[in-house]
Task: structure prediction
Amino acid sequence: MTYIVNDNCIRCKYTDCVEVCPVDCFYEGENMLVIDPDECIDCGVCEPECPAEAILPDTDPGAEAWLKLNADMAQKWPNITRMIEAPADADEFKGVSGKFDKYFSDKPGEGN
Result:
């Protein structure tokens, strides 16, 4: 098992999860984060830290497609190891459905 980030993260991009990750397996896109499933040690400490509830075990229903996206984007986006400030409008996008089709960007973030 590993953990994945789903579309709840898009346009929210809270990084509370990054701060607690013991293996630095998060990668930053322009408007979301992903977890590298090959680096994740399945500890689960990130899951309760996410205010957007965007982190789930890959065994949850519907997680298979997110596992592939996380794996693919982790190879293209820079590693993020420290907490950064969430976007100013992050709270406005928390809980909004259909964010992948409307807002997903495959552009990389800045990393740190």
